[in-house]
Amino acid sequence: MQVTNEFLQNLRQDYKSATLDESDVDNNPITQFKTWFENAVSAQVYEPNVMTLATVDKAGRPDARIVLLKGVDEDGFRFFTNYLSAKGKELKRNPYACLVFFWPDLERQVRIEGSVEKLDKETSENYFNTRPVASQIGAIASPQSQVIPNRQFLEEKVEAFKTSTGERNIAKPAHWGGYIVKPTRIEFWQGRPSRLHDRINFELIKGSWVKTRLAP
What we know:
Blueprint: H1 5-9, H2 29-42, E1 50-56, E2 62-68, E3 71-73, E4 76-82, H3 86-93, E5 96-103, E6 108-118, H4 121-128, H5 133-141, H6 151-165, E7 176-190, E8 198-205, E9 208-214
Antiparallel strand pairs: 1-2, 1-5, 3-4, 4-7, 5-6, 6-7, 7-8, 8-9
């Protein structure tokens, strides 16, 4: 098989698994998100908390990567990372982001836009303390987003930490912690035949969520 333009143009999937009407969607988009997330878990979607996090760099160019949702409530959507990473530096300069969830098994997508704030130190520490020890050490040893000479460099840093500190009672490093995306827009997308998808959009206007339908 060769990946040609013709091959790509002929890759098609007609979405037929479900519909989405305004009356089917809760008036609170956070409640609706939780319902869809529960559906994804029940359908055994692989890592349903995977989401694309999009930011912009200092030149205004878009930058995106996959992160994991680690909390959601009426305040917003939470994730954790290295504050000195590329995304951390971009969020410091421009504290706005977009999140995208895509659950292909359900032919569903959720898009979220909003401002971003750091979580408080206690919240970040509480989550850090629940992580596997190897992940805790990795968060300390890895200079995320920086150029490194090879894989061995990283593995040696991990081993050096284990030797000098051990593997118990590891403290959260100052450069690592959580963010919360406080949504101002949330869109629920349900795939439909002939690309006539259902799109139900929520926008936060004067403190209240306004629900509308968007053309596909």
